[in-house]
Amino acid sequence: MTTTIPRVARRRTTSRSTGRSGAAVIRPSFAWAVPATLFFVLFAVLPLVLVAVLSFTSWDGISSPEFVGVDNWKALIHDHTMIQSLWLSVVITVLGVVVQTPLSILLGVWAAGKQRNRAVLSAVYFVPLLLSATAVSVLWRALLDPNFGVPAQAKWLFGDGNLLGMQKSAIGVLVFVGAWQYTPFHTLIYQGATRAIPQVLYQAAAIDGAGTVRQFFHITLPQLRNTMITSMILMVVGGLTTFDTVLILTQGGPGTDTTISAYYMYQRAFKSFDFGGGSAIALVLVLVATIISLIVVRVSGYDKMRSTSEGL
């Protein structure tokens, strides 16, 4: 007895190849990846290679670069400001993660609700995300002005009001301004991830008598694990590369108390016209960001996770 294969099925089988197990395998076309690959090579890999080459030269930005070997790297090892800037970058980044992560999770889970008032409040809350870092920094510098800003009107709370004149308070201001602007972005990520959690999990938990708090800790947080790692990596990279906020708010001061690595790179390259030393600092910053991101991925076990839709 013979059976005929429908035309639709016949067409479908011709567009796929069959592996040894007999299952249909879709062969993707790598031509779709060519534009993105070229873009990445031209605007990421090539500039990084050029910066690596410049780190072994002495160049003032005008005359021809002069090869100096590893002199720039030796100078960084004995540069106290460089070591301090790396430490400050890590401190500000860690504080940013500690502050933004719980706020983003709570606000994201709350904003995932379907009530009308939540949609309106969420839209208003996301306004800082639409502003540039420069505009946000200028805004907060005016608000925190010790003579005419909020501190001058509330001396009982801020003392002399010069929050940017001491290291601890200046670091606190940088962390606060960064959280004010970028927490909405991570909130948006958690909002989307929360809405993707199957409602059947909450329904089953409610039948078992679990309340809202217990559902949050036993269902929502575990389901947001992958999103949390992704968000934290973005915070780490963003924190280590913060520049314009420091440039406008503190300019690395008082003294060098808030001179983070990105700002120190700017000072060496564009103020001291030492592009070789600035390039070395840039590579160190890339290396530190990569190491921290890999540590987060390895500690969290994110590298061992697999998507249920892998291969599609």
From TrEMBL:
Annotated segments matching region Disordered: 1-20
Protein topology in the membrane: Multi-pass membrane protein
Keywords recorded for this protein, A-Z: Cell membrane, Membrane, Transmembrane, Transmembrane helix, Transport
Domain ABC transmembrane type-1: 86-296
Entry-linked InterPro entries: ABC_transporter_permease, MetI-like, MetI-like_sf
Localization of this protein: Cell membrane
GO cellular component, one term: plasma membrane
Transmembrane segment boundaries: 30-56, 86-111, 123-143, 163-182, 228-249, 275-297
A single BP term in Gene Ontology: transmembrane transport
Family assignment from sequence similarity: Belongs to the binding-protein-dependent transport system permease family.
Protein name in UniProt: Xylobiose ABC transporter membrane protein
Species this protein is from: Actinacidiphila guanduensis
Lineage: Bacteria, Bacillati, Actinomycetota, Actinomycetes, Kitasatosporales
